[in-house]
């Protein structure tokens, strides 16, 4: 089990209207109000951020955005800046998700600029990295991750305390085929080593989430690994009761 405080993040992607998001929060809050040993984070679509922020007020659940533009302001139609997200109460923002990398051509350089813009506004980036199936089968997993980490964190020097890393093997996202705990730990251990090289001793305290088909049935075994410090959850975060069970992964295991 990790010595770092676990962080469980719900990534809703392009799901839930603001009204649906509010209904979720109403159901989730009583389920997680006693989850003191973990940090719970919800990343709704932009359109629900404001109302979700209001409904989370007074609770320990934190708000995250799913993306941000790296520029301060200007002629960037359809984009949202870090300052705008900070104003709404976002404490975290996901950057470099594999869907953004593959569908919208986001590069490590762009991810690094987004992370820097967020850090400048007091928002903690959740920086996603992960290999795809072809890269894994070609034996290139560690090279790919090395490049993604170096590139995506290039502008975050000295900010280890404000960063969260999410290891998300692309072949495990939304497929129902999660990495085994052993495989995930092997990669998390590698990422930890790279973080220590990049950030020094502070790299040991950085939290590394695992993402890819996490559900109530497999979360405990993943979280039992020494370098897995949380989960970034897509599909299984859409129902409050299911996500609530993930948040309470320890209690769930005790009840078995
Ligand atoms: C994700 O989108 O970050 C994710 C891990 O999705 P899922 O849990 O559905 O695999």
Question: How is the topology of this model organized?
Answer:
Layout: E1 7-11, H1 18-32, E2 39-43, H2 46-56, E3 62-65, H3 82-87, E4 92-95, H4 98-103, H5 108-120, E5 124-129, H6 133-137, H7 141-152, E6 164-167, H8 181-199, E7 207-211, H9 219-223, E8 230-233, H10 240-247, H11 249-254
Parallel strand pairs: 1-2, 1-8, 2-3, 3-4, 4-5, 5-6, 6-7, 7-8
Bound molecules: phosphoenolpyruvate.
What share of residues is helical?
40-55%
Q: Low-confidence runs (pLDDT<50, min 5 residues)?
A: none
Which strand-content bin applies to the residues? 5-15%
Question: Going across the major beta sheet, what is the strand order?
Answer: 1-2-3-4-5-6-7-8
Give the overall shape, derived from the CA principal axes. Answer: globular
Bound molecules: phosphoenolpyruvate
Distance between the termini: 18 Å
Radius of gyration: 17 Å
* Tally of alpha and pi helices: 11
Order of helices and strands: EHEHEHEHHEHHEHEHEHH
For the sheet with most strands, the description reads: 8 strands, parallel, barrel
Using DSSP, what is the number of strands? 8
| Class by alpha and beta content | alpha/beta
Overall average pLDDT: 97
Keyphrases for this structure?
about 260 residues, eight-stranded parallel barrel, binds phosphoenolpyruvate, about 15% strand
Structure write-up:
With 256 residues, this protein is an alpha/beta fold. It is built from eleven helices and eight strands. It has helices at 18-32, 46-56, 82-87, 98-103, 108-120, 133-137, 141-152, 181-199, 219-223, 240-247, 249-254, and strands spanning 7-11, 39-43, 62-65, 92-95, 124-129, 164-167, 207-211, 230-233. An eight-stranded parallel beta barrel has the order 1-2-3-4-5-6-7-8, surrounded by five helices. Strand 6, helix 8 and strand 7 (207-211) form a beta-alpha-beta unit. Helix 1 runs parallel beside helix 10, helix 5 crosses helix 7 (141-152) and helix 7 (141-152) packs across helix 8. The chain is globular. The chain binds phosphoenolpyruvate. Residues 11, 168, 173-174, 211-214, 232-236 line the site of phosphoenolpyruvate (PEP). Phosphoenolpyruvate (PEP) binds at residues 11, 168, 173-174, 211-214, 232-236.
């Amino acid at each position: 089990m990790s010595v770092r405080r676990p962080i469980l993040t719900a990534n809703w992607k392009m799901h839930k209207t603001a009204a649906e998001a509010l209904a979720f929060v109403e159901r989730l809050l009583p389920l997680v109000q006693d989850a003191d040993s973990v940090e719970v984070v919800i990343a709704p679509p932009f359109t629900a951020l404001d109302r979700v922020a209001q409904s989370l007020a007074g609770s320990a659940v934190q708000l995250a955005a799913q993306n941000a533009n790296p520029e301060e302001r200007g002629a960037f139609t359809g984009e949202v800046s870090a300052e705008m997200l900070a104003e709404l109460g976002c404490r975290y923002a996901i950057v470099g998700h594999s869907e953004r990398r593959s569908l919208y051509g986001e590069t490590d350089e762009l991810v690094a600029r987004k992370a820097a813009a967020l850090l400048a506004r007091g928002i903690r980036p959740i920086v996603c990295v992960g290999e795809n199936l072809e890269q894994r089968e070609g034996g290139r997993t560690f090279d790919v991750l090395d490049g993604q980490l170096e590139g995506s964190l290039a502008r975050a020097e000295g900010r280890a305390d404000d960063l969260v890393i999410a290891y998300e093997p692309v072949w495990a996202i939304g497929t129902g085929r999660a990495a085994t705990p052993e495989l995930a730990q092997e990669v998390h251990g590698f990422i930890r080593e790279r973080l220590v090289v990049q950030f020094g001793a502070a790299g040991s305290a950085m939290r590394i989430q695992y993402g890819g088909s996490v559900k109530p049935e497999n979360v405990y075994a993943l979280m039992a690994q020494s370098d897995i410090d949380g989960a970034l959850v897509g599909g299984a975060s859409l129902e409050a009761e299911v996500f609530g069970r993930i948040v309470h992964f320890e209690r769930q295991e005790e009840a078995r």
